């Protein structure tokens, strides 16, 4: 069980947040956009956007990956922190590596595994879904 509230932030502490709701288990997203923005794959939990409270956000910037998808990052240290989609206005994905430990969260799903890079071996203990971005499966 995840501790409540979960807290987290970027490396330079320019962005600090807390999640005042239950957070979803961690999902690993292997889609090409997430791989390119993170440098590997995105491991993220999620919560209602309205439950994510910012204690510091002066360096938070949003990158429009597409007209409907944005990634939140720190403009000072470069940390990727968030993912959001315009069709899910109260859903915010939060990169698991930016959470303060212990989190109590577990990884339970890998998506877009058909787009995983050839150097990476998928974890056989985690449920996988190949994915089709045209089906709206992405959950970042």
* CATH architecture assignment name: Beta Complex
Q: Report the β-strand fraction as a percent range.
A: 35-45%
Looking at the structure, the CATH topology is Metal Binding Protein, Guanine Nucleotide Exchange Factor, Chain A
**Unreliable stretches:** 134-138
Task: Report the count of strand segments.
Answer: 11
N-C termini distance: 21 Å
SSE series: EEEHEEEEEEEE
What coarse outline follows from CA principal-axis ratios?
globular
What is the mean predicted local confidence, pLDDT?
A: 92
Give me the Rg, rounded. 14 Å
Alpha plus pi helix count: 1
Largest sheet: 8 strands, mixed
Overall structural class, as computed from helix and strand content, comes to mainly beta
Task: Give a written overview of the molecule.
With 140 residues, the chain is mainly beta. The chain has one domain (6-130): Metal Binding Protein, Guanine Nucleotide Exchange Factor, Chain A (Beta Complex). The protein has one helix and eleven strands. The chain has one helix at 32-38; strands at residues 6-9, 15-19, 26-29, 42-47, 52-57, 60-64, 69-74, 80-85, 92-95, 107-111, 127-129. It is globular.
Task: Reconstruct the topology from this structure.
Elements: E1 6-9, E2 15-19, E3 26-29, H1 32-38, E4 42-47, E5 52-57, E6 60-64, E7 69-74, E8 80-85, E9 92-95, E10 107-111, E11 127-129
Parallel strand pairs: 3-10, 10-11
Antiparallel strand pairs: 1-2, 2-5, 3-4, 4-9, 6-7, 7-8, 8-9
């Amino acid at each position: 069980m995840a501790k409540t509230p979960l807290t987290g932030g970027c490396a330079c502490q320019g962005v600090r947040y807390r999640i005042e709701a239950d957070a979803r288990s961690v999902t690993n997203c292997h889609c090409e956009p997430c791989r390119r923005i993170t440098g590997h794959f995105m491991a993220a939990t999620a919560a209602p956007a309205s439950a994510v409270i910012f204690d510091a956000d002066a360096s938070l910037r949003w990158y429009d990956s597409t007209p409907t998808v944005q990634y939140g990052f720190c403009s000072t240290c470069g940390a990727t922190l968030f993912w959001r989609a315009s069709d899910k206005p109260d859903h915010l994905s939060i990169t698991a590596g930016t959470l303060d430990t212990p989190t109590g969260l577990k990884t339970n799903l890998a998506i877009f595994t058909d787009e995983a890079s050839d150097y990476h071996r998928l974890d056989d203990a985690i449920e996988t879904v190949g994915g089709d971005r045209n089906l709206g499966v992405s959950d970042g």
